[in-house]
Amino acid sequence: MRRVYIITLFLTHSIFGISQGSEYYKYALDQIKKSPDFIIYTEVGSKKIQVMIEEIPFSVTARFFHNDIEKETGIDYSTALVNEEIKENENLKALSDKKRSKLKLFFSPIEENLFIAELAYSRSAGDLHYKGIMMFGQSLAYLFKIENDTTFIVKSILMQNN
Fold first, then answer.
1. Does residue 94 fall inside a structural domain?
2. How is 17-41 classified by DSSP, letter by letter?
3. What are phi and psi of 138, to 5 degrees?
4. Of 26, 60, 67, 83, whose CB neighbour count within 10 A is largest?
């Protein structure tokens, strides 16, 4: 009986965590679309976003926000080991404006009440993988903070990937 209780508790926590994270990502997506940086970044191209199921490791992009993250958490990501393992989160697919678009959005998992969203144009709507899309060109990255069940942009940066 105790095992059943522990497994049920674990599954309930996991399900709640996924749906709670998806809500934060949904709020973040709304804020991205309203941000001046997004308006400038999408001036020429599509504004319809395909949210990708690949979750980029927080540590991959965190180094670009290391001062802001260190100020919020005390953790120095500029020297942190980069975990390159990309995981999939099928729940992210539901946030997309279009099933296929050249404008791709990748989220990181939530760590220390922070997460990162990175937006980039791909060469074709069929491109699906973070590593291939982020190889060349520009991307727009946002650092988000969760506070009192509210998601807000801490900072955004335009990155040159080459």
1. yes
2. HHHHHHHHHHHHHHHHHHSHHHHHH
3. -110, 150
4. 60
Q: Are 116 and 107 in contact (CB under 8 A)?
A: yes
- The answer to whether position 136 is within a domain reads yes
In angstroms, what CA-CA distances link 132 with 77, 97, 113? 24, 21, 28
Q: Is residue 70 part of a domain?
A: yes
Q: Is the entire prediction scored with pTM above 0.70?
A: yes
Tokens representing 23 are 């809500």
As given in the structure block, the two tokens for residue 104 are 């791709």
9 in any annotated domain: no
Q: Based on the structure, what is the number of domains in the chain?
A: 1
HSE-up of residue 58 (Cα within 13 Å, Cβ side): 16
Walk along the chain (162 residues) and give the pLDDT tens digit of each residue.
444 433 333 333 334 344 457 899 999 999 999 999 999 998 877 788 999 999 988 888 888 898 898 888 888 877 666 667 888 888 898 898 878 888 999 999 999 999 999 998 887 777 778 877 766 678 999 999 999 989 999 999 998 876
| Beta-bridge partners for 160 | 138
Rounded distance, CA 22 to CA 7, Å?
Answer: 23
